[in-house]
Amino acid sequence: MKFFLDTANVEQIRQALDWGLCDGVTTNPSLVAKEGRNMEEAVKEICELVGPDRPVSAEVIAVEHDEIIAEAQERAAWAENVVVKIPLIPEGVKAIKTCTDMGIPINATLIFSCGQALLAAKAGAAYVSPFVGRQDDIGYDGMKSVEQIAQMLYMYDDLNSEIILASARTVEHVIRGTQCGAHICTMGFDTLKQLFKHPLTDIGLDRFLSDYRALQEKLGG
Ligand code: E4P
User: Fold this and answer.
1) Is residue 131 in contact with ligand 1, taking CB distance under 6 Å?
2) d(CA 5, CA 15)
3) Which atom of ligand 1 is closest in space to residue 31's alpha carbon?
4) Does residue 127 fall inside a structural domain?
């Protein structure tokens, strides 16, 4: 499973790259706004930082087909690894098809159901992004939609989208994503850090180090 970092924060991306745990980046307008930066400038910097082999999603703001296409072309020209994020609305689905025909890779975003993923996949989206955490927030089991999407996509040779498990907020989300066949999990920096954590690792390491220090003292003294 690939790990994408869901952030527009360059320092977080730098750290994840250093750990060898960043296969790509997803941004959205809220994440860019959180950094208080111009989207073009931020996305260009991220694309350069991660290098040409790691995709970086940049979202359109437009909601009408022609404007979406114009923004998609603009974003695609920012760097060779830009993937354009388009929301799953009727004009968006139409734009996904147009962009795909033009050779612009698309990440279909704001997907909350298998039916929406099917529309995006039929339109040729390179990636479909079901939002798990946001479904959990309103009392649904968000992972169910990922399971259904995976089942559907693995069954049809003509549906070639990769699943990005999005809005992953917990270790459980990431692990269940691996079990149901999501190709990629995009997660915030806090979720990535949570994956390292287990109290027994900290306790075990403390004990290994203190036992060895005690041995050194004994041998040295
Ligand atoms: C996906 O590409 C979105 O940017 C993201 O995963 C949304 O996550 P959130 O629900 O934690 O904001």
Assistant:
1) yes
2) 11
3) 4
4) yes
Ligand 1 pocket residue status of 134, Cβ below 6 Å: yes
List 2, 34, 44, 85, catalytic entry: 85
Query: Can you give the pLDDT at residue 164?
Result: 98
The model carries a pTM of: 0.95
- Kindly state whether residue 207 falls inside one of the protein's structural domains: no
Q: Of 54, 52, 63, 67, nearest to 27 (Cα)?
A: 54
Per-residue pLDDT at 221 exceeds 80: no
Note down the domain range covering 145.
2-196
* CATH number, domain with residue 168: 3.20.20.70
Read off the pLDDT of residues 147-189 as tens digits, 9 standing for 90 and up: 999 999 999 999 999 999 999 999 999 999 999 999 999 999 9
* Total domains, the chain: 1
Q: Is residue 211 part of a domain?
A: no
Burial label, 139 (beta-carbon count in 10 A; 0-12, 13-18, 19+): exposed
221, part of any domain = no
Indicate if 85 belongs to the active site. yes
